[in-house]
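Input set for joint prediction.
Command: fold jointly, output tokens.
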Amino acid sequence: MLNGAQSQSFAKEPLDLQGAKEPAELKMGVPERFYFPDAPAPEGCPLSLPYSAPMVPGGFGGSAPATGRFLSPALSSCSAYRPQPPPAAAQPGGHGFALPPGELYPGGGELYPSPAAGDGCYPGAVQHVFPRGPLYPVPGYQLSGKIQVMLNNYPLWAKFHKHQTEMIITKQGRRMFPFLSFNLSGLDPVAHYRVCVDIVLVDQHHWRYQGGKWVQCGKAEGNMPGNRLYIHPDSPNTGAHWMRQEVSFGKLKLTNNKGASNNITQMIVLQSLHKYQPRLHVTEVKEGEGDEAYPSGNTQTFIFPETQFIAVTAYQNADITQLKIDHNPFAKGFRDNFDSMYTTAEGDRVTPSPPDATSCQQLLPGSRFPSFLHEQYPLPQSRYYNGEPLQHKEHPRWYFASQQPPAAPLDYGAYEGSYGGNKYMPFGVKAFPLPASPHATLPYYQEPHPFGSPPAAWQPPAKPSPGALGWFRPVRDIRPLPAGEEKGKDAEGWAEPASVKSVDSSDSGLFEAECKRRRVSPYASSAESSPPARNGDLYDKDGGADPGYYGFYGN
DNA sequence: CTTTTCACAGTCGCGCGGATGGGA
DNA sequence: TCCCATCCGCGCGACTGTGAAAAG
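tokens >
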């Protein structure tokens, strides 16, 4: 309940939990300052996962729902779960908990069983859904037991979630965008784990886009054959491996082809116009254990409500289309003339994203980025590291790379030489000199996590090895400019595009035409989380080419 | 009328092969 | 002259959303 949109709904208005009540202790136990204005539920589209979060005495992150009527199988099957976990089962640290061995989540008919998950209830599995508590007020971050999971591209997911994410499904399979990407921590470096994702129905309704809103209509179709589980190709592997780099599911494809037989391991079969919730499963694999019982009792499950989506065969909401075009490098061809993008009011555009950052050296005012971060995700008092604010006085423009091309070699030497001793950047966070344009946008994978640095209680790898940064992998070759150098850099390589002339002065007529032509949302949307442009001098040859994205897919 | 399917154009990364340049 | 490394261009495949046609 403390995560993402739910926390926001909680803060602003009661959740429609279909009868579920907010536990009083939840409201009392979490100071308001720990909530974030992220990812409100789309209008007319109440947040799903109508569960409430039992607060765990002495900790947080109780994972079992109080009501699970329309939940994913594991959740729904836990409907009768009592909020207070057995103290003996509490994990060290008191965050999250595990059921005693052998104890099943009681009750719960399986409304939406996941074929891959068997009966949809993993005995002893830890369902972690409500991660944000006083100790971990971080959106896109969850903790269960010792395992910590961060949704890498949380800001982007939140942005999509705000408009009700849609995912295209095709016969041959369509990749998700945004795709699921996580950072794991707290694993036993030498133990072996499997990591997988499954996608389960959120509710039992058929959805329809009507009058600019998603509305429920009719009942969901019954069980559908087909794969619902995607096992990460690196599985099984050591905890060290999983913690070394982000765990991405970019190759996961969604299909509506029930008979899909080829690429079955890469495809998940869904039904159009149904709402789904991806879940991340982390399973410790003991020696001699096979794959058959998977997920098993050793599985810990993480659910990020922001990743909910409705499967469609064609986009319904123009805002979603525009977000996809703006952020998905593969859709670059649909980004229109750069000038036209910036003759509209910035706030009206969904996201101003240059088609080519090389030619368009988009510039952000240095003050803009941190400012937006602070506004969108106000940092709570607890957002300090080593007792100091994460944003250093002298280098206020810290940029947290939420994702990094896995294949990109890390110039760790240079990084370490410059910043290794910086106590503010212990997780591979590199300083990023924000350029000075109000329009710049980075490809989605560079969307900075609003809380790029883990909470103080985070346990990062002691010292990442070269190429293995643990948590936040820095953007390659980004180096901070010493104070005073920015101007010079601007003069040299930061050309102000002619098109940036009037961002704030919107020509309404022109904008309307543009909206019609480009299906741009007529109402204000989120351009705020667009990260800064990259300096062509410091990045790859094509600053807008999303090297990480393509690099990843090229694997 | 709604939903699905298909062909299309656009973009990009990757791999291959040829051209080029430096050193032995 | 030969060998090796690097650079460059081209073709291919993967991937995207669009829009029209087909299907239900």
